[in-house]
Amino acid sequence: METKAQESVSVSEPVSLSGQAESGILRKGGKKGKDRKFVIKKKFANENILNEIAKLNKARGVLQMQDEWFRTPPFLIPFKSRKRKEQDTQDNGEEQQVEKEAEEEEAKPVVKVRILKVMSCNGFGIGIHEPTEDKSTHENKKDWYFLVPFTLPNEIVMVELVENSWGYTIGKLVEIVEKSSESESRIAPQDIVCKYFGQCSGCQLQMLDYQHQLEFKWNVVANEEFAEILNKFPQIKVNKVIGSPNQFEYRTKITPHYNNRDHDIGFNSVYSKYRIVDIEECAIATKNVNMGLKEIRRIKASEDAEEKDVDKNKKKKKSRGGTYLIRDNVVDSTDEQGEQREYILEHNQICNERLEFGNGMVAKFEFKASEFFQNNRTTQWSIWWTHIAELDCLLYVCQNWERRTMMEWT
């Protein structure tokens, strides 16, 4: 996702952290223009990201940093606020628009970052600060990590900083300053199918052509997640990733979240797990699943409308949000009323699936909608035949090899 840099935003150098306290740092842009203390705590950090950082430090020969280092980011990020209009029902029943005071938002720092790798845990690029001509530096700037979605290894990018966390800063891609060999696998922004890509965290690699997406996933398994095991057992080979005949409209299950504050239904934002991107249609979900999503949105809108009509004094405390389940269902099944169901919305409902092997062979499965089942039926036959071949080979071994030989082989 290549975008133009905003002219009003300039490249920033580290600001002084003289206001740093032992329990955290000061965050610029607090109430009434004053700096606000923002405590960076380890318990709020993503453990998977910290593990990636530890592995990257080891690969780069960087010593493991102390806790003090993890809570001292080289850049301060202005506190972000927004104007919100809320309906306030008065005693006389009249509704008035109440606009909360909003602080003037400052421009966020934009820095140059060199991407080292793409993380396996979330698909974000992780990189370090690329020094500018001004050599003024925070002492840990060279080893502080920046997480930037939609970037690729060895790219040099301009990044707008969004949020500081324990040992890393999350940023938004503004511009690709210098491309790398990996950049050739990018597709043109106008060719990206999903209109929510770049906001929704559900998919991380749609900026790549499909073949390079598969290669990235193979590399995660072969060279990262299971590298230690594979090094001990070199006879084990990682097969190629089984690609999907359909790159879109294949997923038979989604679990969208909802937010009772903003009435959004969708998936977490790329830049904040506390914000939900409102999704009307998911590009990778089947047509039946998207029909179910429309039904969920209709039901939720009806419930929200009913709640507005309830007297505030009688209304129960509303939950902050939750998660829905939508699963595609084979249409040759019927519910208790004899009606065909193309999608299922309840966790305990029985779901039906068909698996066609060819030559007239058909396998039928029944399982609860909440239980795991391969979510891409277009690849099921390939996966099943692979495992059937493995089981057939193992059965042959059990029947023809001596027990001692088998134990040595295993």
From TrEMBL:
Q: Which GO terms describe its molecular function?
A: RNA methyltransferase activity
Please name the Gene3D superfamilies in this protein's record. 2.40.50.1070, Nucleic acid-binding proteins, Vaccinia Virus protein VP39
An example Gene Ontology biological process: RNA processing
Region annotated Disordered, chain positions: 1-34, 81-104
Keywords, in A-Z order: Methyltransferase, S-adenosyl-L-methionine, Transferase
Bias kind Low complexity: ranges: 7-18
Question: Would the keyword Aminoacyl-tRNA synthetase turn up in this protein's UniProt record?
Answer: no
- Listed InterPro entries: NA-bd_OB-fold (IPR012340), SAM-dependent_MTases_sf (IPR029063), U5_MeTrfase_fam (IPR010280)
- Superkingdom is Eukaryota
- Compositionally skewed regions (Acidic residues) per UniProt: 89-104
PANTHER family named in the record = RNA M5U METHYLTRANSFERASE, TRNA (URACIL(54)-C(5))-METHYLTRANSFERASE
Q: What's the protein called, per UniProt?
A: tRNA (Uracil(54)-C(5))-methyltransferase
Organism of derivation = Zancudomyces culisetae (Gut fungus)
